[in-house]
Amino acid sequence: MVFSTPIFLFCFLVLTLLVYYVVPRRFRNLVLLCASLLFYYWGEQAYVVIMFLSTAIDFTHGLLVERCKKRDNDRGARLAVASSILFNLALLFFFKYWDFIAGSLQAMGLTFMPVLNIHLPIGISFYTFQTMSYTIDVYRGDARAQRSILNFGTFVTLFPQLIAGPIIKYKDLGDQIDSRDASTEKFASGVQIFMVGLAKKLLIANNVGMLWDSYKAMAPADLTVAGAWLGVLAFTFQIYFDFSGYSDMATGLGRMLGFEFLPNFNYPYISKSITEFWRRWHISLSTWFREYLYIPLGGNRCSKARWMFNLLVVWTATGIWHGASWNYLLWGLYFFCLLMAEKFFLLKLLEKAPALVRHLYTLFFVVVSWAIFAIEDFGHLTAYLKVMFGLGSVPLADGALVYYLTGYLPILCAAALASTPLGITVYQKLPRRAAQVSGAVLILAGLVLCTAYLVDGTYNPFLYFRF
Amino acid sequence: MTKKYSIVLTALFCAFIGGIFLVSLLLPKKEFSQLENRYLQKPPELSLESLTDGQFMEDAEDYVSDHIAGRDFWVAAKAWSERLSGKRENNGVYFAKDDTLINRVDTPDPDKLDRDMSYVDALAGNVSVPVYFGLIPTAAAIWSDKLPAGAPTADELAIIDRLYFSTGANTVDVAGALASHKEEPIYYRTDHHWTSLGAFYGANALLEAMGMEPLDLNNYEKATVTDDFNGTIFSSSGVRWVKPDQIDTYVPGDGVKVTSYFTGQPQEGSLYVDSYLEVKDKYSYFLGGRQPLCVIETEHTDAPKVLIVRDSYSDSLAPFLTERFSEIHLFDPRDNLTSVKSYVEEHDIDAVAVLYSFSNFASDKNLFLLGR
């Protein structure tokens, strides 16, 4: 099930909240677990088995790690962690990368791996990373092993962040799973964040997404230079508002249930360097990679060559985490190169440059990166990039560009403004009374508008089925 | 956040989603949406199979969306919101000039068109009588100057030219006939069909291609049968701010014998079916709408017999043909699997016309029957 459907908002959420708050407190996790399993079963049916399997296996491994540690058996504890990581990676590898590798090998004439046409279980990259963090956190002593399998199942399946993140580490959530406070204040702030996310998804992302789809569907010969840029700019907004919209909805739903999640996006498009962009974009993923991959590899406390190698590993992994396809790998390596350049000399140069130049520099490379991200077919991607840089022997603009530009200009401007903290700054400067009234009015208006777009939802894609 | 304010927000949110849930649950369910002109999703069937293959979930999602309280309001609100945000289209419908709604036409797959043309050519080779082929362009092509500037749509006229160039059938220049009268109301503003006036120019294009005497508009008296017609594009667009269309007729409905085969069995029909003027689907006033076969016999018993391979555009065209033919057989290959060739031989047909609107020709999957 996805958040941006009428059945989620007007049936699933209503009933879940109702039952959650009616039953005695000690049954809340059970309610959540059942609701989450239903939530996953709704979209994936048989794959719900993965939920049970993940829960059972990681739960046992956690206990095993703790027992070994108590007996000072570090070797045993390490083995248990390795075994749990192996299980999670095997799960991820099989469902996500098997067909990609088999297909690539077959293209080279090697046929020992058959292509199985595996349907990718929704959210697998998010929840395998979440469960992987558990045994590691227990081993490192950052969290205690969970004693109740019911509570652990609740952590694994927790529906607000199950299918599109944020990736929550066990050490950040473990205590909240065991006990958490719910209050009207928390619920109301959850409503605010959820509505911001819903509006981001339905009113902005889906809207500009249609614009990108029009350009993505065009044959390269039918594109124009300006049109190709408009298209990828539309995708730039679509991916941000869609992805951060989902994160906001997750955070909001979490708060309605009493949870507190860490922020996942922090206005990435106002960054003044690529380094800064990655501190603001999909924070839960970069933190995960930093804590569980980069630092264990040795981080930057090693030789320069080793440090570069560590970064290469992290960015290769970041690339293919987003999808089993060559363009995602290229996308990861593209950022590796940019970050290397920044670390060695660019950042020093940029510090002397005016802010505008630094913003334009960052936006330029980010926008180009989205073209690589959004077009999986290499032939199409090269042709599209050629057009963008004037090498496609197509006109600069055409009638369709005028049509799209005029029709989408208001929404693009709104998206640009909403990519900056301007709105929240103004809102916080309002006198208390005015802020309260406008807040309530905005939420009501948002509910009405979002319902209209939900009901007549002819275009409502789920972008993360490749993640 | 103060306690009071947080109670207000919480209550607002819960009342809204809970209210819609409750009202939708309690409200009596409609089977058919008049406004959207379509059947709504039936309650999902609960079975082990539908639960394991996901059919139940798919149906349930559509069911909730289709039967949500105030659905008509939400659909209209979205169209309004798109318009106010500067968009000039919604759900594939352009907000065109003069209160007109026009469907965007996607460029069809050329291979599919070529395959379909081979069926038309096979028909032309199969039967011993002349075969005429006419494609009726949509309003997006003929009224392109009413579209928002630069609005993308298929280049129908160029595609029609290409298909006409290669076919072995005799071609009917419907596009030219309509284009030279594009200042007149030849299409409905809220429906994808041509008006009776458009059909009149189409009929003359057909007669001209057949070498027959054209009709004179001055011989007819225009009668407006309704001015409250909200057509198919009105339904799909969600646009509720345009004024309704009027339906005109030119040819009186008497003096002909119409036999309709709605169910496969012959029954007495009529050129115009008044009861449809009372419902939403008013275009079915012409001949009563889609049917596998319809035979019209006229007083001109010495005139030739024509078979039209039809789509719904032919329903408003047929009245004009009653002047020049003794029998008009309207044959719909979507619902009628009889071989056209044997039908032509059996009924002594003198000419066959394959007459399709561009959009239907590009999407119809049953044209292969023509070649059998």
Overview of the molecule:
The complex is a heterodimer of chains A (467) and B (372). With 467 residues, chain A is an all-alpha fold. Chain A is 73% helix and 0% strand. Chain A contains 18 helices and no strands. In chain A, helix 6 crosses helix 7. The longest helix of chain A has 34 residues. The two termini of chain A are 16 Å apart. The mean pLDDT of chain A is 93. Chain B is of the alpha/beta class and 372 residues long. In chain B, the strands form four sheets. In chain B, strands 7-6-15-13-14-12-10-11 form an eight-stranded mixed β-sheet, sandwiched between helices. In chain B, strands 3-4-5 form a three-stranded antiparallel β-sheet. The longest helix of chain B is centred in the first third of the chain and has 24 residues. The interface between A and B is large, with 56 and 47 residues.
Task: Tally the beta strands of chain B.
Answer: 15
User: Structural class of the secondary structure composition of chain B?
Assistant: alpha/beta
Please report the number of helical segments of chain A: 18
User: Runs of chain A with pLDDT <50, length 5+?
Assistant: none
Oligomer: heterodimer
Shape by Cα distribution of chain B: globular
State the strand order across the main sheet of chain B: 7-6-15-13-14-12-10-11
What is the rounded Rg of chain A? 23 Å
Radius of gyration of chain B: 24 Å
Give the tally of β-strands of chain A: 0
Strand content of chain B: 15-25%
Number of helices of chain B: 13
Span of the ends, CA to CA of chain A = 16 Å
Low-pLDDT segments of chain B: none
Coarse morphology of chain A: globular
Query: How can the largest sheet of chain B be summarized?
Result: 8 strands, mixed
Largest interface, with counts of residues having CB < 8 Å to the other chain, equals:
A-B, 56 and 47 residues
Helix proportion range of chain B: 25-40%
Into which percent range does the helicity of residues of chain A fall? over 70%
Order of helices and strands of chain B: HEEHHHEEEHEHHEHHEHEEEEEHEHEH
Q: Order of SSEs of chain A, N→C?
A: HHHHHHHHHHHHHHHHHH
